[in-house]
From TrEMBL:
InterPro entries: AAA+_ATPase (IPR003593), ABC_SmlMolc_Importer (IPR050093), ABC_transporter-like_ATP-bd (IPR003439), ABC_transporter-like_CS (IPR017871), Mo/tungstate-bd_C_term_dom (IPR008995), P-loop_NTPase (IPR027417), Transp-assoc_OB_typ2 (IPR013611). GO terms for cellular component: ATP-binding cassette (ABC) transporter complex. It comes from the Bacteria. This is ABC transporter. It holds the Pfam family TOBE_2. Keywords: ATP-binding, Nucleotide-binding, Transport. The keyword rRNA processing does not apply. Residues 4-240 form the ABC transporter domain. One of its GO terms (molecular function) is ATP binding.
Amino acid sequence: KAFVELKNISKHFKDPHGQGIVKAVDGISFQVKQGELVTLLGPSGCGKTTTLRIIGGFEIQNKGDVLIDGAVVNNLPPNRRPTAMVFQSYALFPHMNVFENVAYGLKIRNFSRAEIRRKVLDILDIVGLTGLENRYPGKLSGGQQQRVALARAIVLEPKLLLLDEPLSNLDAKLREQMRIELKKIQKRVGITSVYVTHDQLEAMTLSDKVVVMNSGKIVQEDTPANIYRFPTNKFVASFIGRANFIEATLVDVQADSVRVKLKNGKEIGVVVIHDNWKIGEKVLVVARPESITLTSVDKGDIVGTIENSIYTGNMVTFEVVSDGSSFEVDMVNPYSSTLPALGEKIGLKFNQ
Ligand code: ADP
Ligand code: MG
C-alpha cells in the first residue's frame, strides 16, 4: 500500500524569458511505500525540485493530487503537512549553535525543556555530531553542516522526509561517505523519504526505488538493479551508467533471454531496448562496458580495432571501433592477462 501517492501532477510556470509557459512537471504519478527511500533522478531542469516542493506544499500544482498517509494534502500549507525538507543550501541559522539549530523546531512546537534535550541529544548521536552541541555553523565543515540540517529535519519525526540534492555542496570524497551514512541513518530511523538528485551513483546507492525523469515526465521507475540492467529507452540507458548501443534484429524471446541477430549475421543473447516484441523487428542492444569481453578475432561476435585505452587503477577501459561505431569495454583486474595493444584487431563478445 502506498504511503505517498502523486496522481497525475502537472505544474507550469510563466516562461521568465518569453511569452509562453514552461511545463516544469507534466502529468507524473508515482507511489512511495512506508519506510522506503525513493529518488527522483534526472538531468538539471527536468522538474525534480518542483515535484519535491509540490509534495512539501511549497509549490501548488496546477493539476493532480498529492496524498500522504491516505489523506489528500493539496490544500495544506507546508507547516500543516507531515513532512520535513532538507534544502540543498542547508539553511542553518548562523546565530544559533548546533543544539539550538536542531532544537528550534521542537521549541516552537512547545515541547518541554527535558524532552527537547533528550530528543536533540538522541538525534545528534544518530547523525554523529555528539560533542559539537555548542559549535556555531560557521565553525563546522560542510559535512557537519549537512548533518545538522538532516538532524533538524528528522528530530521532528516527520512522516515523510524530503531531500533536495542534500550532498551536492560537498566534495567528492565526503559526498561518497555521506551517501553511505545517509542510507544507514534513513534505515535506522525508518523514515519514508523522497530524495532528489541528478547524480546517478547517489540514486543507485541510496534508493529502494528510482524514478527517472526527463522534461517533466517519468521515463522509468524501478529498483536500481532493474533500471541498470533493463533500461526501457536510450535516455535511461545512457543517463544511468555507461552504455554501448548496437542495432540488431529480434530473433527469439524467452522468459529470461532475448536472442537477436547482428548485422553480420551472428546471433547473441542480450538485453535490448524495445517497444514491442515482434520477431524480425529492429531492436537496440544495450551492452554495458563490463558485459563485453575482449577475445580473439575468430571468437568475437563482432570484430574491431583498439583505438584507445584508459587506465583507472582497478580497470582498463578500451575504446574499440567496429564498423564505424565506437564501443567502451571495461577490463576489470587488468593485471591477470596481457593487454591488447593500440591498433590491434580484436573480437568483442557480448554477454548477457
Ligand atoms: P530540477 O530540480 O530537475 O533541476 P526544476 O524543478 O527546478 O528542475 O525546474 C524545472 C523547470 O521549471 C525548469 O525549466 C525551470 O527553469 C522551471 N522553473 C522552476 N521554477 C520556476 C519558477 N519559479 N518560474 C519559472 N520557471 C521555473
Ligand atoms: Mg533542482
